[in-house]
Amino acid sequence: xxxxxxxxxxxxxxxxxxAEIFGPRHYGAISGAMALGANGARAVGPVGASLLxxxxxxxxxxxxxxxxxxxxxxxxxxxxxxxxxxEV
Length: 88
Description:
This protein is mainly alpha-helical. It is 82% helix and 0% strand.
């Protein structure tokens, strides 16, 4: 249920933020380019995970690798500066 709610909210947020940031002129192309990455990851994910299970030898090792990747990404996001300079 939470995954569905989060996916629905991100869909609405992506639509409004693309329109707000880039305007309506190239909305379709920009939105499509953003969706390509997400849909590509959804398509490649199961195959990539199965190849990693074969390479690592067990599902437990795959889950630990994903957990380590999540920690690295989380720390990277926290270390990224959040102040954005706006042009006047």
